[in-house]
Every structure is written in C-alpha cells, then in structure tokens.
Design brief:
The structure is a homotrimer.
Chain A lengths: L2 E2 L1 E2 L10 E2 L2 E16 L2 E19 L5 E11 L36 E6 L2 E6 L48 E7 L2 E7 L6 E9 L2 E9 L8 E9 L2 E10 L12 E11 L4 E10 L6 E11 L2 E9 L5 E10 L1
Antiparallel strand pairs in A: 3-4, 4-5, 4-19, 5-6, 6-7, 7-8, 8-9, 9-10, 10-11, 11-12, 12-13, 13-14, 14-15, 15-16, 16-17, 17-18, 18-19
Keywords (chains A, B, C): Signal
GO cellular component, one term (chains A, B, C): membrane
Protein name (chains A, B, C): Porin
C-alpha cells in the first residue's frame, strides 16, 4: 500500500462538492402552506427536493465548458401541462391535485456554457437576461417564495426552468459579461423571437440596472429598471417593468405597468426580515408580504412568511430549508 | 502545491458513502424467475437497479434535516398504472409486458425528515407505522422477495414507495421515537384518513410489537401483533394482523385474519436459510416457501428461493445481488 | 481529530471517478447543426448531456458484479415513439419538434454484468455482438455522429440504448470473452429471437472480425466482416454487412449489401481528420463525409464535420465536446 498526500485542490469534504468534475448539491425544504382564496382555504404540507448536478471540464487555454441540470420534485398540486405529458394526480379524491406525477422527477432542460474570465456564453435552457437582471428577485419570501408578485418582469421573458425542458430545445443562447462594476447580459430564443438584454452598474454600494426586450408577443416585457442598495441595516430595492400595453383585464394576464418596492432588514446575528409591496395594472389589489429567515447553522434555516397577493389570495407558510 | 492531512471523518473510500452531504448507495440484482400459474408457466430474466440518494444537513443545535429519494428500475412486467402515466410495453409481442417504460426511471416521492437523538419526524413519502412494525418483514425470500405473503399487514397501511410518488403529495406525516429497549412510531396520511401506530419492546433478545390503525377503508388493517427472537441458531418470528372483516372472497382482496410463522437458520459461516408458512382468510391455500442466501463477500451474494403462494402460484428465483 | 494518510486506491481526484463504488462520468456537447434536405434546410443548436452511472461490487473470489445506467438529454427533434410515451414538443410552433419532452430524462435500461478475468456476462440492456464488433464504428463523424451511414450493420441487431429501455425487459443476454489477441462476443434477445456473435483477431496491428446472426426478421443482418489497421499516420478500416436480401426499395429500409471504407489521419499533435465513403443497396446515392477533431486539453475538444448521406441529405456540424 503506497501512501500519498493529496493536494488541497484534490477533494474538499464539505457539502455540494465534486466527485471529480461532477458536483452534486441542492436543497430540500418542507413545511406547512396555508392558502386562502375566494373559493375557500386549505392547509397542506409543502415540500421540494432539488438535486443540482454541475459537470465541467477546463481546456488548456483556461476556458471552462460545463452543463447544469437539476433533478427536482415538488409536491405542489399544479400539473406541468399537457405538452410535457404532466398530469396532476388527485390521489385522495378531495378535488385537489396532490402530486404532479412522475414527470417532475427526471432531469430538466440542460444549460451548457463556455466561460473564460468575465465572459460566459450559455446555450439551451438559458438563464435569461430579464430573469437575471439585478432587482428582479430582491427577496425570496418565506419558505416557498409565495406568488412572486415582487418579480416585476412577471416571467414575460426567457428563464431557466428547473422542472421542465425550459428553452433547451428552443435554440436559447445568451452572453454574459462583467468587468469591474459593470455587467451585461444578452439573451435570445425562438420563443416569441425574444431578444433581451440588461446592463447593470454598481457604485457606492448601489446597483442600477436597465433591461430591454424585443419580442413578437404583445404581452412580453418591453423594458425594466431597478435600483438597489443598502441604508444602515436595510437592503432596499425598487423595480419597475413595462410588460406590454395594459390590456385592461383585472385579475388575469400580466400586461401593463408593474412596480415593486422591497426591503430586507437584519434582526440580530442570525435572523432577517423581508417585506415588499407591489402593484400592477392587472392586479385586483395591491400585493404585499413579510417574512423571516432564521439561520439554524450548518446550512439549515427556519423560514416563514405571510402575503396578500395581487389576486387577493392570502398565503402563509412556515418550515425548514436545508442546503446540501 | 500545498499538502494537507485529511481528518478521518473527511472521506471514507467505501461503498455507499458521501460526496459531501449527498450520499449515493443502493443495490443491483439480476437472475432468473420462474412463475407457474394456473394459466401456464414462464421463465424470464428478473432484474432491479436501485440508486438511493440521501441528502442531509445538520444544524448547530444537532438536529439533522434530510431527504431520501431513489432512482429505481425494475424490469418486471406490471405497469405503474394510468394515474402516474405508466404504460407497460410488450416489446416482443408475446402478450406479456416486458418493460414498465420510462416511468420507472425518475426519482420517487421524497421522504423528508428532522432527527435529533431518538426522535425523528418524517414528512412526504413516509415509512408508515405498520410497514415499519417489527415482525412485518421477518425474512426477505430468495432474490426477489416472492409474493410477500409473509408480510401480515398485507400493505393495508401507508408505506414508503420506491418507484412511484408514494405518499409524497398526500400530507403523510410520521413520528418515530426510541429510548432504550422501547420504540414507537405514529403515522398519518390523507389516504383513507389513516392514523396508525406501533409500539415495540425488546427484552432478553425477544421483541414484542403491537400495531393499531384507524382508517376510513373497511379493508385496511385494524390491529396486528408480532413476536420475534432467537433460539440457538434460529431466528423465529410470529405475526398476526386483523385486516378488516373477512369479505368471504377467496383468491382476491386481502381482508380478514392473516398470520405468518417465519424462521432463519445460519448454515455455516456465510450461508443462511429462511422459511415461512402463512395463511389468510382470502388465501386459496396455505402459503409457504424456503430460500438460501450465500454471502460471496464484498457486498455480493448468491440468492435463491422457492415458494407456493396463497393464490396457488409457484415461484422459483435464483441470482446475484450486489450492494454498492 | 485523528489524522490519517489515504492509500492511493482510496480516492483519485480526476474526472469520471468514484464516489465509493458508484462512479459518475459522461460528457456534454453543444454547437450548431445545419441540415439540408430536399424539403428545405435549417440551422439549429444541437446539444447532448450524458451522465453515466457505473455501480460495482467485487466478491471475495474476484468476480466483479455491476450495473451501468445513463441519464441523457438530447435536444433533437425526434420523439422517442409512442411505446415509451415520448411525445415531441413543437414549442415555438414552427412545425419542428423542438424538444423530446421529459421522457429523455430518467435513467435508461440497465445493463447488469458479472466479470472475471477475460470473461464477462451481460444481462438486460445488452451491448450486442454486432454493435460491438470491431469495425462497426470506425470513426465518429463531427460533433454529432451525423447519419451513421458508416456503421455497416445498420442497427439491424441488438444494441445498448442510451435513452430508452433498450433490451432491458427483453431477456437480453450476452457473453464476452477475450484472451490475448483473440476476442469473441455472443448475444441473444427476445427481439426477433436474435442470436448473434462476433469473433475478432489482431495480428501485426491489424484486426480482422467476423459477425454472424440468426434472426426471425428478414431485414436483420445475416453476416458481416471488417478489417482495420494502421498505415503510417493513417488508421484504415473496411467493413461489409449482408443486411438480409435487397428489398429493391431505394431511400428506405436498410436491406441488402452495405459496405464502408473509413480512415483517420493525425494532423499535428492535437488534431485528426476522419473521412468515409459508404454505399448500400437502399441508398439513393453514395454516402461520404469528412470531419476534424481538435483536442483543446483537459477533456475538451472542438469538433466539426460535413457529410452527404445515402438519402441525399447534407449535414454540417461544429461545436465543443467536454468529458467529465
């Protein structure tokens, strides 16, 4: 038996780290979700398991080529839709879909990339320039994220999809570039022939971002702006998106103006509180919510939140998240 | 190159061990299965591949949060059923389904848990209090398990499902507790509004267990008892379950009384022999079987068994299992 | 904290290596594919992600038991076919299937094996004696492999299937044996009751192989021969297959004679060029193509090729492949 000493780069025995050039990480979360709509209320268990697989190789010239896929299972009731064969299952016959079926359980669409220095080219299930624009996810409310009313572009652009094919088969392409305090991101796909970009600049702790999109669809986002920074113990963020012309339909669609004001406050060493208020032309009422995240150490945390959505739905969740 | 010494807890280079806090393990088995029914007999290859993924994180207070999922593929002929989209495939046109299709191949329903000391709370695709009651799996017959007639509660309660969603979307919850020689397990789910519990106590090498269940379904298990222990080279086990009232249907259902007597004998250093006899109100005849398991070392074993089931089917299997 | 030194066999920090006895490896590739048919031409992104899982255990007597599965996702437009539930998705409504749907994303059929010295027995999703005959894959054209017109047996025999069940449920069995310069491979399955074998012998750097098959299907391969070796900087290969009697249908089927001449030339230290010419009774015209593979180091390479297929389709591809 020959004894050897490993180099420090060889293997690191912490969570989310590589077996060779394939790394496995992710998170699990579980807890309780209360939903109160005009049709009635329900309290159910909510859970998600996400295993993320990152595979990479680096050329002699220092270019990293890689792929990211996820194996994810949510227990929520909504089906994936017929195009991917997803059918919700009402296993206990109470009128709700209890389980999305097996369609959730394989890998999702693959994002391939080539990266060198501050430049990255992505292909397939792309991140999307508007989805990745600073200020679009100013907070992550509660355990489950709630209604994402605080995401101003309202998913009216390309985005990485964790549990279906996403843009993988749709010729999605993107270029990301950063240099010092400046960053930009251009993405394009066959979906509505979208071409989108964002530009962001950070100065004195504040980040200003501008997003633009050209699309064949009237309801897609046209432009967006965001400003975010820190004031004392608070992180503040404002975002606005012009999601096409207002279609004058309240309670449906997502067209017209959409603005979001959000904040995060550190409360003690291990706890923060997040809050938002948002409104949009298609909202029935102003949307708002507040949450807390309490760090339990070791990648685990206790999380909960309450919100009143733009569609007048009340959501309350509480549970545990663990990263691995 | 900086040289380091790893701590012993860092990485252990044996089977089934972690890449960080995500561990991959499982087993494969393959061999021959002979089935003789009133309709005729067949001899086919049987195989299973199971990759089990356990992901965990531990909070500073010592609570372990985690999730267990499996990626499993059996080659048996039965389809998963239409609710999950599974369709068996008769690829060679001989009238039997040869392959369950792709539905087998994703991850199954997730079991989430929080564990601290002797207490564990499970959520989702739960283990189930009757399924995990001592004495319900006194033996594991042959290569494939055969008819599981030796499982007295007859699957008339919640159980972890390795190849479909299981209770994942069904608000399954359970609490497991052990202290010294005593253990208990309470589980509940939306399926038939089941509430089940078992209590077990071990003294002088013998384990006595009692199971109870309240359910909306007439055929579900009402109560069960088991006793198991060792006498010389033999492990003996007796179990009885009251699976609802006898419906007087022979050859179908699973209602009424069900009892099982089972034994395991060590024969030499690397071989054991298992045998059982069981009967139930719905059996057409008494069920019995015998098997052998021969350890080949390194996690591999040769296994085979023969049984005559309660439905008058003869099963013979022989093959290899390897754990990884 | 106890410090230890690892044995060299413990863990090796390079790509494709084990987390214990389960190893994860594979490759990704992405680039551009141009297709020109009589009906028109198209240029699209092409991509594949393959994660290969090899699980093994070794008995005390030195027999290795194991299983191989793959999780693979292609973005090509063809559906898997209705038998496995695969449905192509035309997400952008341009008349092409953009995405195979979720059916691609689970594990494929499992190949189980037992191996000792030069002897290996395989069960399930078998490799196949004709598929693994030397000379059947003399080259791997471009990024995507193009039409595989250079595979003389034309897939008219059993083969390992990376993205569906393959022969897993079909009682596929095979035996592979090698001793010095001689190797042989016998495979059998329920598909068309195929029984196939190949025998190969290597002398002075040249490999000669003979394949034989008995099958219930008129169009299956009857016999095949191949010769391959090196002359200076070139690797040359010739293969011929008798794929049943010529059915006199041009542009369809795959019956009759099929021959292939292929070569690989090293051009500089990191680049090679491959070329082939092939013809078959069912080809509308002679098929030919040429490619290059340029090694970028670290398991990455730049690849591209152009071919004119036997069905008068022009294919051009260019892109990157990375092994992990």
């Amino acid at each position: 038996m020959k004894k050897v000493l490993f180099a420090t780069t060889a293997l690191v025995a912490t969570a989310g780290v590589a077996a060779a050039d394939v790394t496995f990480g992710g998170y699990g979360r579980f807890g309780i979700l209360y939903v109160d709509t005009a049709a009635g209320d329900s309290t159910d268990i909510t859970s998600r398991f996400r295993l993320q697989i990152d595979a990479t190789a680096e050329s002699d010239a220092g270019v990293t080529f890689g792929a990211r896929v996820r194996i994810q299972q949510d227990n929520d009731g909504s089906a994936d839709g017929t195009t991917t064969g997803g059918v919700g299952v009402d296993a206990d016959g109470d009128g709700d879909n209890d389980f999305r079926g097996r369609q959730e359980t394989g890998i999702n669409g693959v994002r391939f990339f080539a990266r060198s220095g501050g430049l990255e080219v992505g292909v397939g299930n792309i991140f999307g320039a508007l989805e990745f624009m600073p200020g679009m996810y100013p907070i992550d409310l509660g355990l489950t994220g709630h209604s994402y009313d605080y995401t101003a572009y309202n998913f009216r652009g390309d985005a990485y999809d964790s549990d279906t094919g996403g843009a993988a088969g749709l010729n999605g392409v993107e270029v990301m570039y950063s240099a010092g305090d400046f960053s930009m991101h251009v993405s394009a796909s066959d979906v509505n022939d979208r071409l989108a970009a964002h530009f962001a600049y950070t100065f004195s702790g504040w980040t200003v971002a501008l997003g633009l999109q050209d699309s064949d669809a009237a309801g897609d986002t046209e432009w967006a702006v965001s400003v975010g920074g820190s004031v004392g113990i608070a992180d503040l963020s404002f975002a606005y998106a012009k999601n096409g012309d207002d279609n004058n339909i309240v309670g449906a669609g997502g067209n017209g103006d959409h603005w979001v004001l959000a904040a995060r406050f550190d409360v003690g060493a291990a706890t923060n509180i997040e809050a938002y208020v948002a409104d949009a032309d298609y909202f029935a009422e102003t949307s708002y919510g507040v949450d807390f995240n309490h760090d339990l150490g070791g990648g685990t945390s206790l999380r909960g939140g309450i919100s009143s959505t733009g569609q007048d739905v009340t959501l309350v969740d509480l549970g545990v998240r663990f990263n691995f």
